[in-house]
């Protein structure tokens, strides 16, 4: 049996791992790589003559840990290039993946329209080359027709000698740790894939569950060298910020937030806060059609949320809708919020302030000393969010150089990733004497190196940090 690391190897994004037993090939996750820029992607794809470093037609099954695009985003391209198998995941992951892939396809279509126009440009110049990894709506539809939903905790046979069990991982609705069982040469081997590990007591989500003892563990390490800074409850942390920015002064609060997962946690927390704390009437604008669609999925799968959310649903009927919440669907409605002069809260994507409608809200308020931009999650180096967090006095938005007069704050209570302690807790469910190999993925190199050193202190000595393309015999 062989395991090859084709993504999230010494980087955060692009999760993709190929497990081969005899002639059966399983791909665990098939994510978009955001660590490479457009030139880097183009170079790699030209060298490979494909989006993938392998022949997609030879893959038999895809196992998907969760819906986030850095884990699911290249699935349509897999079908475009010849894959004919199934994608196995939980039912909520299937629903959320459909929304995220459709959103990506819409973005690709807009970029294609901008690149090519309606035909040849003036002077007879040819249309610009279409990026190899772009897909459109019909590609997403083809992919989604081949998704197979499974239940947490139930063994699902994917081949004569191979079965899989999904375990709740927290992090996102439907997210899973995956354990693959392979019978080979009269011996059973278990390989565990952590997916993205959530954190305990996170709004809406069940706590991450341990997996049984495995022979080999592939573990994410996003927060391998970090601890969460905020230790107060999410509702208390958010209430404190709102009181200071919208009540004590008549200001407005802009919260950049990822549409799937983070926004739902925010809306649920706000709903609880207004019911329990009797806050003054402050309008909340949720400005992301994708977030609105995702919120409906969360509401539909309330049975799979944590006990607090289920009890809240039973007592109050709706998890997310409250009197002062307004969903903004159109671009015109989004722009019109700038004319609203009362204190308000604006929740908009993307969470790193890179693309999406949130850019226009930041642009409109960055020069307002009565406005506050609240960062609630990780922002990659170079993004607008990263520059705001690092105290730059001016930032460039849509070609304009603007002074930063708004207040910039940060809380990490809504981060969906477990920190170093959570990762250690997950790994320590495995007996180091029985674990034959531990592979660290999905993290920055420094994070991986520090986490490797940390867990070696607990007796885990067979720890590898694979390079992209490295194959291991299991």
From TrEMBL:
Pfam families, sorted? Beta-Casp, Lactamase_B, RMMBL
Q: Which keywords annotate this record?
A: Hydrolase
Q: Outline the extent of the Metallo-beta-lactamase domain.
A: 13-236
Q: Where are the transmembrane segments?
A: none
* All residue ranges annotated as the Beta-Casp domain in the record: 263-388
Q: SUPFAM superfamilies from the entry? A: Metallo-hydrolase/oxidoreductase (SSF56281)
What name appears for this protein in its UniProt entry? MBL fold metallo-hydrolase
Organism for this UniProt entry? Dyadobacter sandarakinus
